[in-house]
Design the sequence.
């Protein structure tokens, strides 16, 4: 007489349920992961260009004017694979902006949520205060740090 063996393995319905659960989880997780990557890229850029403010302040005090475009490497702006930095002085004063423009996704591994968008640190001429803004990253995207203001639509 043969002894009956117990069931081994999974049934087809059990496997289908597992695949469905994994599909639902990945559909929720992928957009959140992409948003997290973009937010990290923005924070990294902000930390890097915030470090340049000290050199810009020193230049502004010594020369009496905000640095001109083309002085970025002379003032210690590091080369970044995420994009480029440009100085934009305001007319007739010691104010200006440090503008970071994210690269396109074709030329660098930049998140599509911030590709070809900007982040700007602006120095007010009269008070010397700094502000952080973006003209094309929206506040409701919640990619900008709380100290920065984005485009409101």
Sequence:
């Amino acid at each position: 007489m043969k002894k009956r063996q117990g069931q081994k393995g999974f049934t087809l319905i059990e496997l289908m349920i597992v695949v469905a659960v994994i599909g639902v989880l990945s559909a929720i997780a992928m957009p959140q992961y992409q948003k997290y990557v973009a937010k990290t890229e923005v924070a990294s850029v902000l930390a890097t260009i915030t470090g340049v403010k000290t050199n810009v302040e020193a230049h502004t005090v010594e020369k009496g004017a905000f640095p001109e475009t083309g002085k970025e490497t002379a003032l210690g702006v590091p080369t970044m694979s995420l994009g480029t930095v440009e100085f934009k002085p305001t007319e007739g004063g010691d104010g200006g902006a440090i503008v970071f423009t994210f690269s396109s996704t074709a030329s660098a591994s930049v998140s599509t949520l911030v590709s070809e968008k900007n982040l700007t640190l602006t120095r007010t001429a009269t008070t010397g205060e700094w502000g952080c803004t973006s003209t094309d990253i929206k506040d409701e995207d919640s990619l900008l740090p709380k100290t920065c203001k984005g485009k409101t639509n």
In short: DSSP finds one helix and five strands in the chain.
